[in-house]
Structures are given as structure tokens and as C-alpha cells.
Amino acid sequence: MRVYFLKEMTVKNKKKLLDIVRINQDNDEDLSIKLTALNGERENLSSYFLSTNQVDVFVKVEFIDHNQKNFDNISFWAYHVIIKNNSDEALTLRHRHWKIIDSSGNLQEVDGEGVIGKQPRIEPSASFRYSSGVHLFTNSGIMSGNYLMQKDSGKLIEVAIPTFSLDDPNHSKIIN
Known about the structure:
The chain is mainly β. It folds into two domains: 37 residues, no CATH class; 125 residues, ApaG domain (Immunoglobulin-like). 0% of the residues lie in helices and 64% in strands. It contains no helices and twelve strands. Strands 7, 8, 9, 11 and 12 form a five-stranded antiparallel β-sheet that branches. A four-stranded antiparallel β-sheet has the order 4-5-6-10, with no helix packed on it. Strand 2 and strand 3 form a beta hairpin. The protein is elongated. The two termini are 22 Å apart. 19% of the residues are buried.
């Protein structure tokens, strides 16, 4: 398993970059990689990254709204995902599993085929992007999960999705 730390920074030309420092726990080799921000035109988005089974999963989280009148005190977030296949074999995303825990400790589990109504095939060195959303009856929570991917050989592999925080920036910070 690898651990990744994400830090947003601004360089001379004012272009936002994501500085990812990867620490390979197997051999303690440090590697720095510079990537263009997943969504450069939006400020203040939290970024998360995890790599398992030669598949990178990047997640950016965006708070949308906290509506107290029309939706019984529900908070809404969008999450933007990039799945990059670093293996030498095409992968098809067959299934997703999410665990969503709000700040009161309530757990929701979501299972389903593919993502956003698709079961995308991701060629070697290619990426698939999608956006989706989640709502909670509290102003913070966390999400984690995994994808079940199928190789062309038929073998199924599990790809972890990084755990990410859902926070309402208009309320005091709760560390999840």
C-alpha cells in the first residue's frame, strides 16, 4: 500500500498545481509528482488520492448547499472522480460500494453496478472522469468505498476509493 499526501500550491505563472508526495511503504522510496489540479478553475476544493492494484483514484469534493427550508436541513456535496488505469490491461468498472457516515455516526451503504449509469472500459494509461453527489442530514461526514474492476482476462480486482471528508465550510470545522 502507498500513502499519498496532497498539497495545493501556486507557482510563478499562477497556475494551480497539486503536489503529490508519494511514500512507497514497501521500500521507503519517496517520489514527487506534479499534476495539474483536477479542476483548476475552482478554488477551495479538497483533494484526495489513493492508488491500489495499479489504478489511481483522484477525488475532489465540493460543498454545494445547505438548505434548511425546502429540504429538512439537508447539506449537499458534489464529488468529482478521475480513475486512471496504470496497468497493462484494460479494465471495466463493474460495481461500486460506498460507506457514508454522517457526523452523528449514521451509516449508509450504497451498492450498484458501475457509476452514473455506466460500466466504463478504461484502456491502459487512460482515465475515466465522472461527477456525482451526496446529501446528509448533518453538516459533515465522510465517504469511503471501492470499485470492483474486471480485467480482460476475466479476473476481478478491488480498487479502493480514498476516504474523503464532507464538510460545510459555513460551519465550524469537524475533523472526520
